[in-house]
Amino acid sequence: MVDEADLEVVDHVSRVEVLEDAARRHDVDVVVIGSDDPELALRLLDLRPRLKVLAVGGEGIDTRLYELRPWRVLLGDVSPRTLVEAIRAAAGATWSATAWSGP
To answer: At 11, phi and psi to the nearest 5?
Structure first.
């Protein structure tokens, strides 16, 4: 994602315990987490109701988008390219089924 000029990574945390604090510190549109954790997603949405939480399963399998709780969307398998498109879509671009097809 560092090669994507229109995306800015503002923080990286390796422990869930510090994620909520990082979400408070940064005014972000999207938080990417490395597993589907509905409770964590809801806590983040409590902190920032307009936030989008992109939960990426291992190897990009079974990715989900949380927003405007309690709604979530199963996005399925994602490649690095479709992960970037999911972040753009979650940040405000229009989502389309074609954005998720293929690697």
So the answer is: -165, 160
Does the residue 100 lie in any domain?
no
pTM score, whole prediction? 0.64
Query: What pLDDT is attached to residue 86?
Result: 79
Q: Tokens 């509905």 identify what position?
A: 38
Domain that holds residue 21: 16-91
- What pLDDT is attached to residue 63? 85
Residues 6 or more apart in contact with residue 80 via CB below 8 angstroms: 60
Domain assignment present for residue 97? The answer is: no
Task: Write the burial class of residue 12 (CB in 10 Å: 0-12 exposed, 13-18 middle, 19+ buried).
Answer: exposed
The tally of domains found in the chain comes to 1
Does residue 7 sit within a domain? no
Q: What is the mean pLDDT of each run of 10 residues along the chain (103 residues)?
A: 80 87 88 89 89 84 74 74 81 49 35
| Strand order, beta sheet including 71-76 | 30-33, 52-55, 63-67, 71-76
